[in-house]
């Protein structure tokens, strides 16, 4: 009898196994992907029963009620998946519990479609992936004599008690920028939201890595492991940074002060973060092999649960969502609820400039940061035998020798082996990518001219390979020059371990080419080199010219509401910060940038570098004004920013052509260049909370109120007449017909009563009136404002203006106007 039962059971098991194999085969035909799913029901942070929550107030995630509710949410996620999807068709990666109720699942498109109609499911969105978006910065921003002084104690006290969360590629805990001083331990402010953290250990991140400066470190890899085969030698399953980007961002925001920046034996200066005494909480969600949005939003959920005061996102989706408005993607919803919980969220605006509407920071609840360069330059020069200096770029030491012009000048194309067995392609012949292609007798001890050609145009060739060739063949130095076929190329200062220079402009290359041809003789296929040159010092900075200038790569407005690029009436970017040629910490492994391998610092550019400047400054503001909410901090930063450069003129912006500039607008710089000192004491602020963000969303004509309720849990009870009524420190109207009345409310955060008078810089084609134009306001009280905009002339492009409130105690409050007048009536 038992044998019969056993046989029957075996047959049943085999049948189940066959069924599972058939199911697996069916699913294998579909390409699996990660899907982010939002579910009905309150998360822990906003559940009244578990947390007794009030917006902006800290929820204790370790309370018994919170733990019970979190378990209930996880169980509900498992129940939805188990009852909706077929066995073996999915793998749950995360349950989101703290600020958003939902989960991430790895499954097929057909199974994801089933989830969309499952009871309790609000949204299913395919994971769009995530991308990575200073010795001089503190001085340029006036921190040593400004905020650091007012904060008390100078740089050694800047940001004390505040915790900055960094979601990125991790951190190198051994870097001196993150060293811990046992003589001055980090202490939390009484007003800090940070209550708990964790220190997850693993490869390259041993116990003790969370040292008191690094107050918490976690990593998120379920999404990455689901969609790719991770490489254990670089994709470390620990908070360790094998890339360098996360360390760069963290040290820019809160790296220790007075850290020597040394590369290739040269001291470039002393580095400091904006808030050198702030604590750093690390959330690694980006890996060298792959990055998923599932890992990023899970990190946001955890960072908010830990209670970071400020959250830095120099990463994120690189494009708008396809099937929803930009404000209601999963990523934006997570940022909305992080802000609701009291976390100040800062986001890189993106690096797709200077194209219009290229910003990837869309929502008013996160501060989108544009990038600019300062007046610091690292000029290099190639000195020709006739004394002519050809301008270039390169963090390189000079060539040395007995005579100033003793080094032979050789064009790589002239030094190619005649009988070599290699392809006669530009990579071998012109670009110095392959040492086996060049005659070592000719190039040894010479300065070799390597040319930008097809390999660089197709992004298969690298400057790293030129350096390797130079070392292998004993170049005295190299000049990497532009090619008339491709025109000027963009160049950023790169540290060269051998003397080298990049000459990116055709006009400068022409000077070099004429000299070279005049001093080179060719006889029977051989060249006689009589030209001489040396490479000048390229590591010493000079400070001159107009600044700031909006960087070419920095993403531009106007903001968009969806993938069809319909315009949104909210200003983006929000503010401008230093993001071009920023010195900060780096990981010596440098897995994605071989040219920086072995270095502990890097000079980088991008809005990724601009965002942590604002994070650190926000920490300083929070330290000085601990009761301020995220929207008040954002307002203070915006209304005190400047649109003028060091010449007293409108900030310029780099255009699409190399070396082209134009007068910028709020779509380039947002509110202007951040001014930390003024932001500490703005006078008036514009404050918004979660309910007002819901009213903003409900005001869009094409948005269904049921969708808002489903996505946010909030009803459209108080809809604005227009989205432009959201109480933010700017006014943007993408299609103004006739006239519109816009409402704003200001609050006095000054400790004394103050009288303000209003003036308006009128946009072209629009008349602007502010009521009341003069008012007296007492401390902590508010004043309602009505702003009427009336079209006087139809234009085919936006016009820009400004409303300025001047206070009797010398406060100056500015809000920018960006208006497209489309109809007089």
Notes on the protein architecture:
The termini are far apart. With 825 residues, the chain is of the alpha/beta class. The model is unreliable at 1-28 and 134-138 (pLDDT under 50). The chain folds into five domains: 1-30; 31-126, 2-Layer Sandwich (Alpha-Beta Plaits), CATH 3.30.70; 131-375 and 547-682, 3-Layer(aba) Sandwich (Rossmann fold); 377-540, Glucose Oxidase, domain 1, CATH 3.50.30; 727-823, Sandwich (Immunoglobulin-like). A hairpin with a 2-residue loop joins strand 22 (520-523) and strand 23 (526-529). It is built from 21 helices and 40 strands. The strands form ten sheets. Strands 6, 7, 10, 11, 13, 14, 26, 27, 30 and 31 form a ten-stranded mixed sheet that branches. Strands 17-16-24-18-19-20-21 form a seven-stranded mixed sheet, sandwiched between helices. Strands 33-40-39-35-37 form a five-stranded mixed sheet, with no helix packed on it. This is Subtilisin-like protease SBT2.4. Belongs to the peptidase S8 family. GO terms for molecular function: serine-type endopeptidase activity. The active site is at residues 168, 245, 608. Keywords: Hydrolase, Protease, Serine protease, Signal.
Topology, please?
Elements: H1 2-28, E1 33-39, H2 48-51, H3 64-84, E2 90-96, E3 102-107, H4 109-116, E4 121-126, E5 131-132, H5 137-140, H6 147-151, E6 163-168, E7 214-219, H7 222-227, H8 245-254, E8 259-263, E9 266-271, E10 279-284, H9 293-306, E11 310-313, E12 315-316, H10 330-340, E13 344-348, E14 367-373, E15 376-377, E16 379-384, E17 389-393, E18 407-411, H11 426-429, H12 440-443, E19 447-451, H13 454-457, H14 463-473, E20 477-481, E21 500-503, H15 506-518, E22 520-523, E23 526-529, E24 532-535, E25 542-543, E26 549-550, E27 575-578, E28 582-585, E29 601-604, H16 607-624, H17 630-639, E30 652-654, E31 661-663, H18 666-669, H19 676-679, E32 684-685, H20 690-698, H21 705-712, E33 730-737, E34 739-748, E35 754-761, E36 766-771, E37 774-777, E38 782-791, E39 799-807, E40 812-823
Parallel strand pairs: 6-10, 6-11, 7-10, 11-13, 13-14, 14-27, 18-19, 19-20, 20-21, 26-30, 33-40
Antiparallel strand pairs: 1-3, 1-4, 2-3, 5-12, 8-9, 14-26, 15-25, 16-17, 16-24, 18-24, 22-23, 28-29, 30-31, 32-34, 34-38, 35-37, 35-39, 36-38, 39-40
Helix pairs in contact: 8-16, 9-10
Active site: 168, 245, 608
Signal peptide: 1-28
Organism: Coptis chinensis
């Amino acid at each position: 009898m038992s044998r019969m039962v056993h046989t029957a059971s075996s047959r049943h098991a085999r049948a189940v196994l066959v069924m599972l194999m058939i199911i697996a085969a069916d699913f294998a035909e579909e390409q699996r992907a990660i899907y982010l799913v939002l579910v009905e029901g309150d998360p822990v942070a906003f559940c009244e029963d578990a947390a007794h929550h009030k917006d902006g107030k800290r929820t204790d995630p370790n309370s018994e009620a919170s733990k019970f509710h979190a378990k209930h949410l996880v169980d509900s996620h498992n129940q939805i998946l188990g009852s909706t999807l077929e066995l073996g068709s999915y793998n749950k990666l995360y349950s989101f519990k703290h600020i958003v109720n939902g989960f991430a699942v790895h499954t097929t498109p057909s199974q994801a479609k089933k989830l969309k109609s499952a009871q309790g499911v609000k949204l299913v969105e395919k994971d769009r992936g995530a991308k990575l978006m200073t010795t001089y910065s503190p001085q340029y921003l006036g921190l040593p004599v400004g905020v650091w002084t007012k904060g008390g104690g100078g740089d050694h006290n800047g940001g004390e008690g505040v915790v900055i969360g960094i979601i990125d590629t991790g951190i190198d805990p051994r870097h001196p920028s993150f060293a811990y001083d046992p003589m001055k331990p980090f202490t939390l402010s009484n007003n800090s939201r940070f209550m708990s953290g964790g220190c997850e250990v693993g490869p390259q991140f041993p116990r003790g890595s969370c040292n008191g400066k690094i107050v918490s470190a976690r990593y998120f890899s379920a999404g990455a492991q689901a969609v790719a085969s991770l490489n254990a030698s670089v994709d470390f399953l620990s908070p360790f940074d094998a890339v360098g980007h996360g360390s760069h961002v963290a040290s820019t925001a809160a790296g220790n002060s007075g850290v020597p920046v040394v590369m290739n034996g040269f001291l470039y200066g002393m580095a400091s973060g904006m808030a050198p005494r702030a604590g750093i909480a690390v959330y690694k969600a980006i890996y060298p092999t792959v990055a998923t949005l599932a890992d990023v939003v899970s990190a946001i959920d955890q960072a908010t649960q830990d209670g970071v005061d400020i959250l830095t996102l120099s990463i994120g989706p690189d494009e708008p969502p396809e099937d929803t408005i930009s404000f209601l993607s999963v990523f934006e919803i997570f940022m909305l609820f992080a802000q609701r919980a009291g976390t100040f969220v800062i986001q890189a605006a993106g690096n797709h400039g200077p194209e219009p509407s290229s910003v990837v920071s869309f929502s008013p609840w996160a501060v989108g940061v544009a990038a600019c360069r300062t007046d610091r330059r690292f000029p290099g020069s190639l000195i020709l035998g006739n004394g002519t200096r050809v301008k270039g770029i390169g963090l390189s030491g000079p060539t040395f020798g007995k005579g100033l012009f003793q080094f032979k000048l050789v064009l790589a194309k002239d030094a190619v082996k005649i009988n070599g067995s290699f392809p006669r392609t530009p990579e071998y012949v012109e670009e110095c990518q392959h040492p086996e292609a060049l005659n070592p007798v000719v190039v040894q001890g010479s300065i070799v001219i390597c040319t930008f050609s097809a390999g660089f145009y197709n992004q298969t060739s690298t400057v790293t390979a030129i350096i390797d060739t130079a070392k292998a063949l004993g170049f005295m130095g190299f000049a990497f020059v532009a090619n008339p076929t491709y025109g000027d190329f963009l160049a950023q200062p790169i540290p060269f371990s051998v003397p080298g220079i990049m000459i990116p402009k055709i006009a400068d290359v022409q000077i070099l080419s004429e000299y070279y041809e005049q001093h080179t003789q060719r006889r029977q296929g051989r060249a006689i080199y009589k030209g001489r040159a040396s490479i000048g010092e390229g590591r010493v900075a000079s400070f001159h010219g107009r600044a700031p200038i909006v960087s070419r790569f920095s993403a531009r407005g106007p903001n968009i509401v969806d993938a069809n690029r319909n315009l949104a009436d909210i200003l983006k970017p929000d503010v401008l910060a230093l993001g071009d040629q920023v010195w900060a910490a780096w990981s010596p492994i440098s897995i994605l940038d071989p040219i920086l391998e072995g270095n502990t610092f890097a000079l980088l550019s991008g809005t990724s570098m601009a965002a942590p400047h604002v994070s650190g400054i926000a920490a300083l503001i929070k330290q000085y004004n601990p009761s301020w909410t995220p929207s008040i901090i954002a307002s203070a930063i915006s209304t005190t920013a400047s649109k003028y450069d060091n010449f007293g003129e409108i900030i310029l912006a780099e255009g699409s052509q190399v070396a082209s500039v134009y007068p910028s607008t709020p779509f380039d710089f947002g509110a202007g260049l951040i001014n930390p000192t003024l932001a500490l004491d703005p006078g008036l602020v514009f404050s918004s909370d979660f309910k007002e963000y819901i009213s903003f969303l409900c005001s869009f004509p094409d948005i269904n109120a049921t969708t808002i309720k489903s996505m946010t849990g909030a009803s459209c009870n108080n809809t604005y007449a227009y989205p432009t009524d959201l109480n933010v420190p700017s006014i943007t109207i993408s299609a103004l017909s006739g006239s519109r009345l816009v409402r704003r409310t200001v609050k006095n955060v000054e400790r004394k009563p103050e009288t303000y008078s209003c003036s308006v810089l009128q946009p072209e084609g629009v008349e602007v009136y502010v009521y009341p134009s003069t008012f007296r306001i007492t401390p902590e009280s508010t004043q309602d404002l009505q702003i009427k905009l009336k079209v006087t002339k139809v234009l085919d492009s936006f016009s820009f203006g400004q409303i300025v409130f001047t206070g009797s105690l010398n406060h100056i409050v500015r809000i920018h106007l960006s208006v497209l007048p489309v109809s007089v009536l």
